[in-house]
Amino acid sequence: MGFTFLRTVSFRNLTDSETDVRGRDIFLVGENGQGKSNFLEALYFCSYASSFRGARDSDMARTGENAFSVSSGFDNNINNNLNITYREKEKKIILDGKKIDDRKELLRVTPSIIFCHEDMDFVSGTPERRRWFFDQTRSLWDSLYLEDLQKYRYVLKNRNLLLRNLQQGINKSENEATLLALDPQLSRYGLELSGKRRETAEEFSAVFEPLYKAISGIDGINIKYTSSWKADSIDGIMEHLAEKQHIDISMGVSRSGPHRDRYSFLRGGMDFSGNASTGQRRLLALLLRIAQAKIFSERTGNKPVFLLDDVLLELDGEKRKRFISLLPEYEQAFYTFLPIEPYESYRKSDTIVYNVENGSITPNGSRN
Fold first, then answer.
1. CATH 1.20.1050.90 in the chain, residue ranges
2. Cβ–Cβ under 8 Å, residues 11 and 68
3. What distance lies between CA 143 and its chain's CA centroid?
4. 4 phi/psi in degrees, rounded to 5
5. I need a surface site. Which of 169, 177, 234, 337 has the fewest CB within 10 A?
6. Could you tell me which residues are beta bridge partners of residue 84?
7. In what order do the strands lie in the sheet with 305-309?
8. Cβ atoms of 152 and 229 closer than 8 Å
9. Which CATH architecture group holds 1-110+332-368?
10. pLDDT tens digits, residue range 94-133?
11. Per-residue pLDDT tens over the stretch 137-165
12. CATH top-level class for 113-306+324-330?
């Protein structure tokens, strides 16, 4: 399920070209700002039709352009070619000549696990960023979870619109009746999400704790999920929503539900990430991705593609070795390195190495 080639047109600063990536390990070597991360972003875009940086589609077009495309081939017996184009504020996904309307269909093609600096947000960032990470983790192997999440967000969006209308006194009786009809849907989808999130946190914690101990020597790290709703039944949630409805209307927004859930990193029942050093938080972020990959493989029987963006740079030599040794089985791995890094010491006999300069990807005698 690895990539065989990547072709980009007007994507970021990358030159319009096709790169052969038929190999298990691919190194991208270059100075900062030359296009290494952009290359990984293009690969990630082929997996999810979105940016791991959270960028809008329009932001990924080369400066001065308003359209771009990325294409890739796959090393499997099911799919051969993918092409994604963005033009005139519209994204079109074509897989083996067939148009894809729902991005979740890409999850079965070539799931990628990205390791990048932005992952620190899952440790030190907002509750929303942590929810995003664990939602992605579950969605990698549970498509029904993704559907429930999409349904919940749709109902929540409509509920918030009704609350704002009621806040402003618009069509009071009509909006109150519609709100009454929406709340059972919000409760049902939300309760399903909460149950799966609790399961995911428990499973994730069991995998994550020994990983963190193996590299840092610190044990007892676990992940706690806290639901915004204390009730554990639809009737209980409905009662809660009814009690808080006047506050929601006064604020013009739904103040409780899965969109307010929290995940915490604890040790001995106390918050760990908030008091951890920068190095410990960086390690937390890296191992979150390793645990994500392990659970994905255990659940699906498939091996992911790794995209590792300068993640070894901030680890000392011993931690680098431990980190690499803990990587689960993978289909393919793309690493970015600065020229000053000792990437040759990680290179295998069949590793492909490319130089990256001014958006141009060129071989440097990589096939040994």
1. 113-306+324-330
2. yes
3. 15
4. -110, -30
5. 169
6. 70, 93
7. 112-115, 305-309, 332-337, 25-29, 352-357, 360-363
8. no
9. 3-Layer(aba) Sandwich (3.40)
10. 999 999 988 778 888 888 999 998 899 999 999 999 999 9
11. 999 999 899 999 999 999 999 999 999 99
12. mainly alpha
